[in-house]
Amino acid sequence: MQIETNGTMPVIPEQQDNSISPVSIGLAVDVGTTTVAVSAWLLSNRTHLATVAEKNVQIRYGQDVIKRISYATRPPLTGSSQNVESGPSALHYAIIVQLEKLFTRILSVCKTKLPRGLPPQVHSIVITGNTTMLSFVAGVPVNGLAAAPFTAGSLFNLTTDWAHIRTGEVVPNKESLDAPTPDTLQFFQTSVISDGTSVYIPPCIGAFIGADTVCAMLSAGFPVPGAAAALKPGESAIKASLLLADIGTNTEMALYIPATEERPGRILCTSAAAGPAFEAANISCGMSSVEGAIDKVSWDNGSLRCQVIGNGFAKGLCGSGIVSACATFLRNGYIDKSGIFQKGISKLGDGSTCVELTPAVYISQQDVRNLQLAKSAVKTGLQYMLEKTESLPVFCIAGGFGTNLNLKDAAEIGLIPQQLEKRCVHLGNGALAGASALLFSPTLRKKAAEIAKRSLQVNLAAVPGFQQRFLQSIDF
Predict the structure, then answer these.
(1) What does the CA dihedral 205, 101, 35, 287 come to, rounded to 10 degrees?
(2) Among candidates 243, 210, 211, which has minimal Cα distance to 402?
(3) pLDDT tens digit string along 418-454?
């Protein structure tokens, strides 16, 4: 998956505040399960200064949300002479140290873009993310997210300061964290961010529908259901359905259903546990969307052709590459509808089958199956949403994977329903864009709270027939 940092900013209702210091900086942070991105903005004139991003270091505690929750709720180790951090402490300090490093990097870049001799001063921070990631940032217990009925320790929509974020003392029911280890202590002795710097965490909707989805809904222009009589400046009544999807390890979806004469408008939200295939994390030759990754596979003059990022030698395959490869395989008879290899088959050392893309990169039968399971989870969720609206919605895709996804390939393998292919709008990193807008707008903060309050969360796993639908959607 490529780290996507650009996004569609919502309209900001307030006028620019020219009284703010010309060196006052706002930082917008998107703490994703896979990646962490930070954008810096001049608050006086809303100028974007820089963005930095990298893989979330918490991956070492688990590729997905479920594994990290499991790590955070593990019982204390006994009978060991080693001084081992508790799960909550390890996850909290890991992300805080990473944020400190990213803040140092981005402020260094900002310094080069300000008038000489004027250092940037961080005035405020907005941190968004899914409910679990924000819980780790704020030191909120995640025990309630480990089992049904899946309740969050906090749904946030709160303002605190950087000192309380660092120490994990944001809410009353905070975790009891260990003292920082010697390796991380240096980052807690000094900080590039002042202790009293304001930090706003937007609202989450539920256990698995986080503030990142709320921010992406702002970016997509979702209205507040039932608030047609109180439209914000720059808004007009929306009569079309809107369907938002941030496709990734945990795919979050939101559907705005406009009001009719018979019923008021509403927003439905759900999530689909797709697993790490879209990040190519469980793919044999999988890698991120960086130089050396195959991101497109095509059929040309009777053979497979690979497009490699950077135009050099292929080192592996990224998420969009595995989708493109399987779509090409399906069109040209390499696999059948069930995903079984039909031609071009090679053998691996363990006797399993694969198709070679280059001498160094291949796709195994298990890779195809992993993609099928991931796309089935997403397709089942999208089809459920489509059944809840009478009109075909505008389809808003957010996130790095969706932004770089070839829609024809996605529809070919059944990742997205065919009828949505021609109705798609790419938002880029909608979560980061929405969080950036919240640096400037109290009005949008109120709107975010209203959207979260009025959205209905649906547990797909509890929908009658969900398992059967999932199994029926595995085939291409």
Answers:
(1) -170
(2) 243
(3) 999 999 999 989 999 999 999 999 999 999 999 999 9
Letter string b/e over residues 379-413, b meaning 16 or more CB atoms within 10 A of that residue's CB: bbbbebbbeebeeebbbbbbbbbbbbbebebbbbb
Strands 24-31 and 35-42, by their bridges, are antiparallel
Chain centre to alpha carbon of residue 255: 17
* pLDDT tens figures, 157-215: 999 999 999 999 999 878 788 888 777 777 777 899 999 999 999 999 999 899 999 99
Reported as type and span, the H/E element at residue 216 is helix 211-220
Q: What are 214's two structure tokens? A: 């709320």
- Alpha helix locations (H) across 139-176? 162-167
Evaluate whether 153 touches 72 at the Cβ level (below 8 Å). no
Measured CA to CA, the distance from residue 246 to residue 231 in angstroms comes to 26
Instruction: Report if pTM > 0.85.
Output: yes
Pairing of strands 346-347, 353-356: antiparallel
Residue 125 contacts residue 200 (beta carbons within 8 Å): yes
Sheet order of strands, 394-398 included: 424-428, 394-398, 242-246, 250-257, 266-273, 455-457
Alpha carbon distances (Å) from 458 to 214, 317, 385, 461: 15, 34, 10, 9
- Please answer whether residues 205 and 269 qualify as being in contact, where contact means their C-beta atoms are separated by less than 8 angstroms: yes
